[in-house]
Amino acid sequence: MAKKQFKAETKRLMELVINSIYTHKEIFLREIISNASDAIDKMNHRMVADPSMDISREDFRIDVSVDKEARTITVSDNGTGMTAKEMEKNLGMIAYSDSFEFKEKLEEGADSDVIGQFGVGFYSAFMVADKVTVVSRAYGEDEASVWESKGIDGYTIKKGEKDTFGTDVIMHIKEDTEEENYDEFLDRMRLRELIVTYSDYIRWPIHMDVEAGEWEETGETDEDGEPKRDYVMKTENKVINSMVPLWQKSKSEVSDDECKEFYKRQFYDYEDPVSVIRVNAEGRISYKAMLFVPKRAPHDFYTRDFQPGLQLYSSGVLIMDRCADILPYHFRFVRGVVDSPDFSLNVSREVLQNDSVLKAVGANLSKKVKAELERLMKDEPDVYKEFYDSFGQQLKYGMVDNFGSDKDTLKDLVMFESSKGGMVSFADYVKNMQESQEKIYYVVSSTASKAKSLPQMEPVLDKGYEVLLMTDDVDPFLVSILNEYDKKPFCNVSTEDLGLESEEERKEAEEKDEEHKDTLEFVKATLGDDVAEVRISRKLRNHAVLLTTTGSITFEMEKYFREMPGGRGGEMKASRVLELNADHSAFRALEDAIGSDKDKAADMVRIMYGQASIMAGIPLDDPVAHSDLVLSMF
Ligand code: ADP
Question: What is the pLDDT of residues 549-572, one digit of tens each?
């Protein structure tokens, strides 16, 4: 039979796994056992859905056996099994979904540690075996298939024999070399130790022949008439794992490190989570949960592809891999497991959405997550910052989602860059407010440094007030949904009345408006519908011009809509307001020109408008014409 080639991606991965001087070769057993357990999970699932199947839960088992002579370890399960087609698909290439990030790491030159943490699954067998044979029979099929491979150069699949459904993975262990010891894996004691260390929590019984010494009566008696006894080694087939999942154990039994290891294995992360949240609820609804707040967002987190959700168990039996309906949208980054005997085994998505038990559990877990994030923010600000870099945006989306229904839950978890440096929460901001200060000032721009250098920042910074630098697309929406924090209104320094003037200053300004009325009218007439209003600025100190907006659409929203795919966003335009600094030499030059040369004055107005647009970060309609106009002044 012709040998088939592995997919290129798979080949590279195998090469890396096999050739790396991997320090934790032993994890191969965990991976193979975990696959066996998954296959039984699936079978159990089918059985629950179809009670007419001729198997019972008690029959499920995993068997590990060793043949020292033949140098093989065999892991057998009575799970779903695979057809030849499924073998081709599942063992011929890497499962796509979970290994994307891993592949990225490969490209960056992943080291062996990353491999282990990702759980490369089936291929890890090749770390210790020079030949792997998989004999499998899918449930309901008469025929078995045999997959065999000696490593990177390919594999074969042929027909085979197997009495019952399920899968045997037979690993032919490599010979010892000078550098590497493989014989240890043929030692039963060692294998047992590995299973207890790595696979103790596996929900299905792992059977193995174990040797134990025992005193046995020989049938003879000694000189005192006492029966004679010999110490004999006996082999007994035993279940060697405790089958208690980690989250079912009491808090004192499981260290934080163990939880973190579990997280990385179970959820394919290569980094420790920032938090482990353990809940053991007893009462009307009893449940146990182990939740994790990851450190980094998965590559697809902010896309439609990301599948949020917690693993749902009913008394240790997996009933749903990603149940997205427990935690609210804003906490969709949380991973973990929830286990309750009160969850029904037979669930569908539709049922879940209206399930009152689930709702109650979700509400409680949500509170725990919030409390944990608040604790992090307060006690471990550096860790919170790391978390926030990854998931802060999600919290903000959560605030504006659903017309702001969760804004109060989340408003104390968001942070912004501050004009004074670092990140601040709203609470910090309000605490630091000056006595004379009544508003929470913020500015919207694409980057913090651009925001800081905007001309409209000057009067606020002059007062010594702090300004929140909002750089996310979602930020302006967030402010409009909150409206105020701690009874302090928000004030956009670009578009709103800063409220910094005294009565006297206000009067003075109004007089100024009156004084320059004709100039303003000339400017408005020149620009026509490009601007909604032209006025003398109360904000400008050193700069000559400022473009701001009036009405509900800001420049940021305009930009947001403009860049939206589909191209219809151009219809959403902010109403522009041109502010002029009456004390600036440019303004005086303009007034002179209006008196002497109206054409030149009109050109100057267009230049001022263009410059103001540039400062506001708005693309010019016709940059060439603008540039020509500026240079024509030389
Ligand atoms: P993963 O377990 O992460 O999906 P693996 O490389 O470990 O990746 O396994 C690839 C696939 O092969 C599994 O997803 C499963 O479909 C199949 N498989 C592996 N071992 C078994 C088994 N013992 N019984 C049934 N299917 C298996």
Answer: 887 777 877 877 777 666 555 667
Residue 309 is encoded by which pair of tokens? 């959700």
493 lines ligand 1 (CB under 6 A): no
Taking CA atoms only, the protein residue closest to ligand 1 atom 4 is 95
Residue at which a domain ends, from 459, 482, 500: 500
Strand partners, 45: none
Same domain (yes/no): 448, 543: no
Instruction: Tell the residue nearest (CA) to atom 1 of ligand 1.
Output: 121
- Count structural domains, the chain: 4
What pLDDT score does 112 carry?
A: 45
Q: Tell me which amino acid residue 246 is.
A: L
pLDDT digits (tens, 9 = 90+) for 459-489: 899 889 999 999 998 898 899 889 899 999 9
DSSP state of 445: -
Whether the CB-CB separation of 323 and 311 falls below 8 Å is answered with: yes
Task: Extract the tokens encoding 245.
Answer: 């999942």
Nearest to 548 by CA among 561, 565, 535: 535
Concatenate the DSSP letters of all residues of 536-568 into one string: E-SS-SS-SEEEEEESS--HHHHHHHHTSTTSG
**What separation in Å is there between the alpha carbon of 89 and the centre of ligand 1?**
10
- Sign of the dihedral defined by the CA atoms of residues 319, 321, 327, 329, in that order: negative
Q: Which domain holds residue 625?
A: 502-634
- pLDDT single digits (tens) 242-269: 888 889 999 998 999 989 988 987 888 8
The closest-lying atom of ligand 1 relative to the alpha carbon of residue 95 is 4
